[in-house]
Design goal:
about 375 residues; alpha+beta; four-stranded mixed β-sheet; 11 helices; about 55% helix; about 10% strand; globular; AcylCoA_DH/ox_N; flavoprotein; AcylCoA_DH/ox_N_sf; oxidoreductase; FAD
């Protein structure tokens, strides 16, 4: 039986969605406000999240209509994440609307507790975070014994209303107020990390251990796959801004972008970004269609896109010259987002190992 070729192109509806999200983010996220918020104790912009999540309905893209969502899919969510990456928008979309939501969709959605929580997340009224280290990928999940101990470096735990805690006893929903949450100082100040102490916490059991583990793996797989689209957005912004700057910046009465050495660097980066787009779109399409090749597509996308985003951000900083090294220029925000995402939801090395295993190649000695 032959498999249908993946659709890597954007549909008209997806382009319309992109235009709407880009317009909103352009109005609500600028460099001064991003820098001010990064230095504050409230890294996320609640008004921006209200506009994106609730008013535009983007928080519920992955949730079926019967459960209060938009009934869209991973391709549409990927477009949103591209634009979030392009603007390094400070919103909990990846952690709440993708990872946590996908985890809940892997459970019995006829369960009243699960359905109610999905409806709240889809409406944008509440957010959830998966209480595992942000470095965990689909194949590196390790379960704790119960609702005890410390979860290190959980993404967005400090801003979430509900924590999804996978344990050896099952998957629990824990109100954030039940845990002791200590915010950390992350490299990427637009995506907060925190340590979560669960000792004495009370939670609602949503699923048994086996079902919970499978659901969490589903959430992490979707998160890793769609994180590639966010990394694509970071890389595209860096390339676009670098080309524009080197076209305007002059040296020896010539645009610096006309120097052959810089032309070669930007041409190479363009090739990498185009390849990253294909990898990210392939992962989003595989997740959307439920393809059996989805784990392979996600592993390929993460192994490649994480490197491209970092390279693009590094080139952006360097080719902007002295201005690229300043705090006032946003290039450092993109470099920090790219570097922090490189180790999120599974490292590039872990994803390369997954690719080797999935295609039947021998692993490292």
């Amino acid at each position: 039986m032959t498999e249908t070729a993946p659709d890597l192109l954007y549909s008209e509806a997806e382009e319309d969605l992109r235009a709407a999200v880009r317009s909103l983010l352009a109005d609500r996220t600028d460099t001064p406000s991003a820098l001010t918020r990064a230095e504050s104790d409230t890294p996320y912009d609640p008004r921006l999240w209200q506009a994106l999540g609730a008013e535009m309905g983007l928080a519920g893209l992955l949730v079926p209509e019967k459960l209060g969502g938009q009934g869209a899919g991973h391709r549409e969510a990927a477009v949103v994440l591209e634009e979030i990456g392009r603007s390094v928008a400070p919103v909990p979309y990846l952690t709440s609307s993708v990872v946590a939501t996908e985890t809940l969709l892997g459970l019995d959605t006829t369960n009243g507790e699960v359905a109610a929580l999905l409806g709240e997340l889809a409406s944008g009224r509440r957010t959830a975070a998966l209480a595992v280290p942000f470095s965990y990928g689909p194949d590196s999940l390790r379960l704790r014994g119960g609702l005890d101990g410390i979860v290190r470096t959980a993404a967005d735990a400090a801003t979430a209303d509900v924590l999804l805690v996978p344990t050896g006893q099952g998957l629990y929903a824990v109100e954030a107020g039940e845990a002791t949450i200590t915010p950390l100082t992350p490299l990427d100040l637009t995506r907060p990390l925190a340590d979560v102490v669960l000792d004495g916490a009370r939670g609602t059991l949503l699923a048994d251990a086996d079902t919970g583990r499978a659901a969490v793996r589903r959430g992490l797989l979707a998160g890793a796959g769609l994180l590639a689209s966010e990394q694509l957005g970071v890389a595209e912004w860096c390339l676009t801004e670098t080309v524009a700057y080197t076209r305007d910046r002059k040296q020896f009465n010539r645009p610096v972008g006309s120097f052959q050495a810089l032309k070669h660097r930007m041409a190479q980066l363009w090739l990498e970004v185009v390849s990253a787009r294909a990898a990210a779109r392939n992962a989003a399409d595989a997740l959307a269609t439920g393809s059996p090749q989805a784990p392979l597509a996600v592993a390929v996308a993460q192994a490649y896109c994480s490197r491209v985003a970092v390279h693009a951000a590094e080139e952006c900083v360097q080719l902007h010259g002295g201005i690229g090294m300043t705090w006032e220029h946003p290039a450092h925000l993109y470099l920090k987002r790219a570097k922090s995402a490189q180790g999120a939801l599974g490292s590039a090395g872990e994803h390369r190992a997954s690719v080797a295993e999935l295609v039947g190649l021998p692993g490292p000695a």
